[in-house]
Amino acid sequence: MDTAFILEKLILVVVVFVVTLVIAMYSTLAERKIAGFMQDRHGPDRAGLFGILQPLCDGGKFFFKEEIIPAGAHKALFILGPTLAIITACISSAVIPWGQTLTIGDRAISLQVADVNIGILYVFGVIALGVYGIMLGGWASNNKFSLMGAIRAASQSISYEIAMGLSIIALLMVTETLSIGEIVADQSGFVNWNIWVQPLGFLIFMTCAFAECNRVPFDLPECETELVGGYHTEYSSMKLGLYMFSEYINMFVSSSLMAALYFGGYNFPFMHDLGLSENWITILGVIAFFLKIFGFIFFFMWIRWTLPRFRYDQLMNLGWKMLIPLAIANIVLTGIITILKDTYF
Questions:
Q1: From CA 331, how far away is CA 333, in angstroms rounded?
Q2: Is residue 65 part of a domain?
Q3: Where do transmembrane segments lie in this chain (predicted)?
């Protein structure tokens, strides 16, 4: 492994990390702007032009606010909770291909940090670890509302990860690979996007993504009207900021996965008919990928200000009695169609 390759990967890691944090930071502004638009008001508009500096002001506030650790809290775990949440959120994007190969001089640079052949398993493993950050924070706070929010998060995660995993199994039956890079590469051409062959699987995956990100209508772990603030009730200063950042990073990563697995990732219609160089096609592919991601992020925010929050029994019934049976039925249907296709076509 040469030095140039290591340097390329380090630069890519830094760029992906910075872009992830910037998108998460300005998602907070977009959320409030979209909420203001849907509620017929302006939203933040004091800090900078159109409120563009509001996320920087919010970040400064988190840094300079007094840090309070409750007297009865388990200090080590209280600190470890938000740390684990933000780490798992940041490393989950390592296997996402952001674009095709970029050629600079005599070197071909892959715009994917790690092209492992079990990329989907890696993402699911990291996502499963994320709930430990919430559980640790809720339990270590020594607060009944925090603990209840953490228990809700754990049970919700268990319930919806099953349906999400089953929806991915049906997709794997079609793509025959666990590599996200290969799945995206096989979707070259608008008609080859996986959304056309797995529409039900996509709907199940998207619903579970809402639950995994604790977004409305599945935000029971931090339900303000019932649990004050949920699992992060006792947190202040930057520790609270880390929990909030991890939520928005998870939303960004979930949007990236949906765009990559079902909507072609960096592929866009007629990309090879433009007569452009490979580098320009790569750059346009990255732009197209991020436009798809921003579309899903907007959809996350739109749903928040459109649908009411579920009751907890409704949340569990939807996960166990509707999504899991639908996901199993989707696997069976995909298997039947695959067998018929291989037999007669």
A1: 5
A2: no
A3: 6-29, 77-99, 119-141, 162-181, 193-211, 248-268, 280-303, 323-340
pTM value > 0.70: yes
Percent of the chain topping pLDDT 90: 57
Please answer whether residues 15 and 94 qualify as being in contact, where contact means their C-beta atoms are separated by less than 8 angstroms.
Answer: no
- Segment 308-329, tens digit of pLDDT: 888 888 989 999 999 999 999 9
- Work out the mean pLDDT of the chain and round it to a whole number: 90
Nearest of 25, 8, 30 to residue 248 by alpha carbon: 25
DSSP conformation letters of 242-303: HHHHHHHHHHHHHHHHHHHHHS-TT--TTGGGS---HHHHHHHHHHHHHHHHHHHHHHHHHH
Give the pair of three-digit tokens for residue 45: 């508009």
Number of domains within the chain? 1
The answer as to whether 191 is a domain residue is yes
Tokens 């979930």 correspond to: 254
The answer to whether position 250 is within a domain reads yes
Q: Residue 282: which domain range?
A: 70-344
Are the CB atoms for 111 and 287 separated by under 8 Å?
Answer: no
Asked if 131 contacts 153 with a C-beta cutoff of 8 angstroms, the reply is: yes
Q: Compute the distance between CA of residue 184 and CA of residue 192 in angstroms, rounded to an integer.
A: 10
CA 46 to CA 54: how far, in whole Å? 8
Q: In the predicted model, what is the mean pLDDT of residues 142-163?
A: 88
Quickly tell me which residue has 């008919």 as its tokens: 273
Q: Where are the alpha helices (DSSP H) in the chain?
A: 3-38, 54-64, 75-91, 119-140, 144-175, 180-185, 199-212, 224-227, 237-262, 278-304, 312-317, 324-344
